[in-house]
Specification:
The chain has about 290 residues and is mainly alpha-helical. The chain is about 65% helix and about 5% strand. The protein contains 9 helices and 6 strands; from the N terminus they run βααββααββααβααα. It has helices spanning about 15-35, 40-65, 80-105, 110-130, 145-165, 170-195, 210-235, 240, 275-280; strands at about 5, 70, 80, 135, 140, 195-200. The strands form 3 sheets. The chain has a two-stranded antiparallel ribbon. A two-stranded antiparallel ribbon has the order 3-4. A two-stranded antiparallel sheet has the order 5-6. The protein is elongated, with a radius of gyration of 25 Å.
């Protein structure tokens, strides 16, 4: 017997809140990824790790907020705690791999394609692993074509978001990218849910696992607290908003006049001490 599936039992509340959480995680993660490209090599890994955790926590929280509105009328739904925790770990680790690739190799070419693909597969893996943690008196069945479409949406969305993070065009640019990423990730979720059908068992009973409210609500406290902490880091770091690098050219510092670069066509170079100092200090960002 087929079960009656309802993904919007609370109306638009769960989709809207889920979308906002996806946007929040995406915005924080993308800003941290952008920030990693503006700092010295020794600080880059820390910012990329923070960005990976923010994106992973955001999409995981989005998924299970949306699942709070998912019901099957003929059977209660419970969740396996271990698999639910594992889906969060998979999201953070796989997203981290993709983000680190782009963070160290740049948001172009093969690195962007590889990083975006791994990140998108991480988003999809989190979704379907989280679905595998559901316990009900029935069996989940998926439409293969729709599942494939949901994975493609996740990969394209992740690639576009990482490309936007690599452009380093300021705060508003990343906010726009996070809105698109949130829409795509939420769309991937509901596309995957559209592929789902439930074949009920003939015998009733209470499934194993824990009820959604008893398991998911406490589990969300950690990721939500982390996203708030990451948000504080973003707000109190001015470079995250301005999108400017840590270094400032020496000739533009207050009190040090800028000197035009002089090309010597012949003769002996000047030995004037002030001119030698200006020439030593006139270094491009690439040489730092």
């Amino acid at each position: 017997m087929q079960g009656t599936v309802d993904g919007f039992s609370y109306g638009l509340v769960t989709p809207v809140v889920a979308y906002l959480m996806a946007c929040l995680g995406g915005a924080l993660g993308l800003r941290c990824t952008t920030r990693s490209m503006l700092v010295a090599q020794s600080w880059r890994a820390g910012w990329l790790a923070l960005g990976s955790a923010a994106i992973g926590s955001g999409i995981w929280t989005m998924h299970f907020i949306a699942m709070m509105g998912f019901t099957v009328q003929q059977t209660p739904i419970h969740y396996d705690k271990a698999i639910t925790f594992a889906s969060l770990a998979v999201a953070i680790v796989m997203v981290g791999v993709g983000v680190f690739i782009v963070g160290y190799r740049g948001a172009t070419g093969v690195a962007l394609f590889t990083g975006g693909t791994i990140t998108g597969l991480g988003i999809a893996s989190m979704h379907y692993l989280g679905m595998a943690g559901m316990r009900l008196n029935g069996m989940l069945e998926y439409n293969t074509v729709t599942v494939a479409a949901s994975v493609v949406i996740a990969v394209v969305a992740a690639t576009a978001a990482l490309w936007a993070a690599g452009q380093i065009r300021g705060f508003l640019w990343s906010i726009g990218a996070s809105l698109v990423m949130g829409l795509a990730v939420t769309g991937m979720h509901y596309t995957g849910m559209a592929a789902l059908s439930v074949h009920l068992h003939g015998i009733g009973g209470t499934p194993d696992g824990e009820k959604p409210a008893a398991l998911l609500a406490p589990m969300m406290i950690g990721p939500l607290a982390f996203l708030c902490l990451a948000g504080v880091v973003v707000m109190f770091d001015p470079l995250m908003v301005m999108g400017k690098p840590d270094w400032t050219p020496v000739e533009r510092k207050p009190g040090i006049p800028a000197h035009p670069q002089v090309t010597h066509t012949g003769g002996r170079p000047s030995h004037h001490p002030r001119r030698r100092t200006a020439q030593r200090n006139f270094r491009t960002p690439q040489n730092r």
